[in-house]
């Protein structure tokens, strides 16, 4: 891959919605999605352990796929390690996937919001301190859900809608009893269950995530570096008036996008299905 790609990094499939959303915004830009199967899951790991393994993995990835923008498509890794990665790779622009606590806090009428995430994210003071910045009277109910992460990673693709709703229902009930009026999806894996969360919670409880904001930030950084340019084209609407529309153009041309799975072993059928639906060719990084 000679062109400059954007690297997305997560412990598994969780960050794929971010990778796929970015592809809609800038389809010309090659993507390298790294699924760290070897070290899955990230949630139980200590801050030091996670920071160290991500530093080594990213060094290996950048040597092979030189990128200028890297998306840490994992809430746990973002909170625990992004500062360390920025210090270790100062030439790289990093985008983190921070849980969407701010909009949930600002919209809350009950002054109680829920955050469903990994063990590491729930233990970190970050989400609670962030919420306090926007409302000192807010109550944050953190709920670790490692079983749900594992379900998305290994069973989601073959599961029907009824099964997905059954998996989500106990968490919604927990938050409902806690009196929250907003739930933040604090793990990227849970975006695969977004419609299921909404179906069981709305309109009484709103669901928050960071998908669109991350995509906009990646595009902005590529523009700042001159990799992606905004070109305005004049179009003629149906009413005959002229309007301007922005479109993203990639300076170097398209190239193959990849789903890179770490560790040894066969690529499972579910991984091949994910790669196919995401338009990514599969490679293994041992």
From TrEMBL:
<dbReference type="GO" id="GO:0071555">
    <property type="term" value="P:cell wall organization"/>
</dbReference>
<comment type="pathway">
    <text>Cell wall biogenesis; peptidoglycan biosynthesis.</text>
</comment>
<feature type="binding site">
    <location>
        <begin position="75"/>
        <end position="76"/>
    </location>
    <ligand>
        <name>substrate</name>
    </ligand>
</feature>
<feature type="binding site">
    <location>
        <begin position="188"/>
        <end position="189"/>
    </location>
    <ligand>
        <name>substrate</name>
    </ligand>
</feature>
<dbReference type="InterPro" id="IPR018187">
    <property type="entry name" value="Asp/Glu_racemase_AS_1"/>
</dbReference>
<comment type="function">
    <text>Provides the (R)-glutamate required for cell wall biosynthesis.</text>
</comment>
<feature type="binding site">
    <location>
        <begin position="42"/>
        <end position="43"/>
    </location>
    <ligand>
        <name>substrate</name>
    </ligand>
</feature>
<dbReference type="GO" id="GO:0008360">
    <property type="term" value="P:regulation of cell shape"/>
</dbReference>
<dbReference type="InterPro" id="IPR004391">
    <property type="entry name" value="Glu_race"/>
</dbReference>
<dbReference type="InterPro" id="IPR001920">
    <property type="entry name" value="Asp/Glu_race"/>
</dbReference>
<protein>
    <recommendedName>
        <fullName>Glutamate racemase</fullName>
        <ecNumber>5.1.1.3</ecNumber>
    </recommendedName>
</protein>
<feature type="active site" description="Proton donor/acceptor">
    <location>
        <position position="187"/>
    </location>
</feature>
<feature type="binding site">
    <location>
        <begin position="10"/>
        <end position="11"/>
    </location>
    <ligand>
        <name>substrate</name>
    </ligand>
</feature>
<comment type="similarity">
    <text>Belongs to the aspartate/glutamate racemases family.</text>
</comment>
<keyword id="KW-0573">Peptidoglycan synthesis</keyword>
<keyword id="KW-0413">Isomerase</keyword>
<dbReference type="GO" id="GO:0008881">
    <property type="term" value="F:glutamate racemase activity"/>
</dbReference>
<keyword id="KW-0961">Cell wall biogenesis/degradation</keyword>
<keyword id="KW-0133">Cell shape</keyword>
<feature type="active site" description="Proton donor/acceptor">
    <location>
        <position position="74"/>
    </location>
</feature>
<dbReference type="GO" id="GO:0009252">
    <property type="term" value="P:peptidoglycan biosynthetic process"/>
</dbReference>
<dbReference type="InterPro" id="IPR015942">
    <property type="entry name" value="Asp/Glu/hydantoin_racemase"/>
</dbReference>
<dbReference type="Pfam" id="PF01177">
    <property type="entry name" value="Asp_Glu_race"/>
</dbReference>
């Amino acid at each position: 891959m000679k062109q400059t790609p954007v690297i997305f990094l997560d412990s598994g499939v969780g960050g794929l919605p971010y990778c796929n959303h970015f592809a809609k915004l800038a389809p010309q830009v090659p993507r390298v999605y790294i699924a760290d199967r070897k070290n899955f899951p990230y949630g139980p790991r200590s801050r030091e352990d996670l920071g160290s393994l991500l530093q080594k993995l990213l060094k290996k990835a950048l040597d092979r796929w030189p990128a200028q923008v890297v998306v840490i498509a994992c809430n746990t890794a973002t909170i625990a390690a992004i500062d360390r990665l920025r210090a270790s790779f100062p030439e790289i622009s990093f985008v983190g996937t921070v849980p969407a606590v701010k909009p949930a806090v600002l919209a809350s009428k009950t002054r109680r919001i829920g955050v469903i995430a990994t063990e590491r994210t729930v233990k970190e003071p970050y989400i609670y301190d962030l919420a306090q910045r926007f409302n000192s009277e807010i109550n944050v109910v953190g709920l670790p859900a490692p079983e749900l992460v594992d379900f998305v990673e290994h069973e989601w693709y073959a599961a029907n809608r009824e099964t997905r709703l059954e998996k989500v229902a106990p968490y919604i009930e927990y938050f409902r009893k806690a009196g929250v009026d907003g739930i933040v999806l604090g793990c990227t894996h849970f975006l695969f269950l977004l419609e299921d969360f909404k179906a069981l919670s709305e309109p009484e409880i709103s669901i928050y995530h960071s998908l669109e904001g991350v995509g906009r930030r990646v595009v902005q950084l590529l523009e700042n570096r001159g990799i992606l340019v905004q070109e305005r084209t004049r179009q003629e609407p149906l009413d005959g008036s002229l309007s301007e529309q922005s479109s993203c153009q990639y300076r170097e041309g398209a190239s193959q996008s990849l789903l890179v799975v770490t560790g040894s072993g066969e690529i499972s059928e579910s991984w091949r299905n994910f790669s196919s639906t995401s338009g990514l060719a599969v490679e293994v990084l041992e």
